[in-house]
Amino acid sequence: MASVPQSSPITPAPVTDTEALIIGAGFSGLYQLHSLRDRLGLSVQVLEMADGVGGTWYWNRYPGARCDSESHSYMYYFSDALLKEWQWSERYPGQAEILRYLNFVADRLDLKRSVRFNTRVTGARYDEAANRWLVSTESGEQYRTRYLITAVGCLSSANIPAIPGLADFTGRWYHTGQWPHEGVDFSGKRVGLVGTGSTGIQATPVIAEAAAHLTVFQRTPNYSVPAHNAPLSEGFKRYVADNSDRIRQVMHSTPNGHPFIIAQRSAHDPSEHERKALYESAWSIGGLRFRSVFRDLLVDKAANDTASSFLKNKIREIVKDPATAEKLADIDHPFAAKRPPIDTGYFETFNRPNVTLVDVRADPIERITATGIQTGKAHHELDVIVFATGFDALTGPLKKLNLVGRGGVSLNALWEAGPRSYLGLQVSGFPNLFTLTGPGSPSVLVNMPVAIEQHVDWVTDCIAHLRKEGIARMEPRPEAMEAWSQQVQAAADATLLSKVPHSWYLGANVPGKPRVFMPYAGGMPRYRQICQEVAQRGYEGFEFSR
Ligand code: NAP
């Protein structure tokens, strides 16, 4: 990589040239770096705003932060050597262990020397004449690259709700996705937690144990299935070590990239008695596997109703106070049509004397005051507010990069009515820009490492092809992008996922965000096949220039 002084006297900052530039050093950025640098031999620079690797798992250090994918499936499968050298300790990996794992991979593959930490990208502009991307950072550095790859994650742009009065609050407040490294001491504190998605459901039991009092502000009630987390037995660790090929094969064959097969039976097949027994058995296994008990839970509302009613009854059985149980079980969407959380003692926590549930749909939050949260009917005195209010998903992290493509068109303007891409990988007008796990790809609907490895492998093969063929630039044809956007919508419409109006898959959690179903819901095997076929047909749908 050469550092050359730029000739213009107006912009004296030196520009660092690199063949490929990757933004982000999480799961996807690290593997992309390894693939381009160590397999293809390119000069590669990674820019990362944190002071360490890890992406999501660097930032999300909130109490109870743990992955919902089972640990033996939440890792890279591209290297047998790496697989052999790492053992997880629990059924689901906690945040600290995942961060240790990613540091282990980065050290083992000597990746950190190619990462510039504490470096936030503030803009990237395509220079058509030079066929290069000019990338600028907050501290005024400039990089010039042929291939620009965003590895910024799907859930990395915190959504802090614009509730009036936040600036007046005299206590401390936090967003779960920007958690302080030193942790938060809740002892003796009255804590308010806003949000009951996967994050709020994980954090609630842990905060309740530590705090004097916890008030949970619930807008949309949510299903949750027990995770049944536990240390992994030596036998299971041996099974994983001896069966990595088989596990990889299963993950690659299932729509969500998880290491379990979805049953072929319909929820309508068994008698009511048998169905209940099957659900009980799935409940006792727990986690995301619960969904795999019937094949039609996500496509058939009547089938889904059987799961929904089983899960609502579980809430009523667990939560002792009937009024609280009713507020928690008053769920208005089909099970798993929003991202289904899994938990460790979430509903049980509402049996604690120091926990209160506030239904902010019935009694909306009006404002934050100096000493707490004012709803229509009451003032809740608080020392700490925790916002478990999610993310500006998929498009948020990309929009923050201020990408400007051919003809000075900005991605943010192009996506004003919602994201459009070809395969979630590229956008017309933005040559040689690759968006790992971007909107329009399976991304958040899939066990992320599986989605990431497929994307990185495809991008790596594609760049190898461009270099071999002497192709200077590549971008999708506008009509291919339009057709793919329609396929993304059609895939969502074939499921119950697009029928939930208040889902972040649709952008509904961020005020003003266009309602477009963002991830591809057609399943990972189908998507993988489409991507393979596109490549085999000479990258059908893309246009090249030399
Ligand atoms: P989320 O699913 O978007 O949930 C945010 C919660 O905050 C929702 O209950 C939402 O209510 C509520 N909320 C937002 N704005 C509000 C407001 N102004 N007033 C009151 N309530 C408000 O976010 P998340 O829980 O952080 O999860 C996001 C995604 O991250 C998950 O779906 C999952 O994909 C991933 N995640 C994974 C794990 C894991 O693997 N263990 C853990 C955490 C997160 P509404 O529903 O009414 O909008």
What would a concise description of this structure say?
The protein is built from 16 helices and 21 strands.
How does this structure look, described?
The chain is α/β, with parallel strands linked by helices and 546 residues long. It has 2 domains: 15-157 and 393-545, FAD/NAD(P)-binding domain, CATH 3.50.50; 166-387, no CATH class. The protein has 16 helices and 21 strands. The strands form 5 sheets. Strands 1, 2, 3, 4, 5, 6, 7, 18 and 19 form a 9-stranded mixed beta sheet that branches. A 5-stranded parallel beta sheet has the order 8-17-9-10-13. The protein has a 3-stranded antiparallel beta sheet with strand order 14-15-16, with no helix packed on it. The structure holds NADP nicotinamide-adenine-dinucleotide phosphate. NADP nicotinamide-adenine-dinucleotide phosphate (NAP) is lined by residues 66-68, 155, 161, 163, 194-200, 202, 217, 219-220, 339, 360, 365, 388-391, 444, 502, 504, 509.
What is the 3D shape? Answer: globular
Number of strands: 21
Q: Taking all residues together, what is the mean pLDDT?
A: 96
N-to-C CA distance: 23 Å
What number of structural domains do the residues give? 2
How would you characterize the largest beta sheet? 9 strands, mixed
Q: Roughly how much helix do the residues carry, as a percent range?
A: 25-40%
Rg over CA atoms, rounded to whole Å, is 24 Å
CATH superfamily of the largest domain: FAD/NAD(P)-binding domain
CATH architecture grouping of the largest domain: 3-Layer(bba) Sandwich
CATH domain class name of the largest domain: Alpha Beta
Low-confidence stretches: 1-8
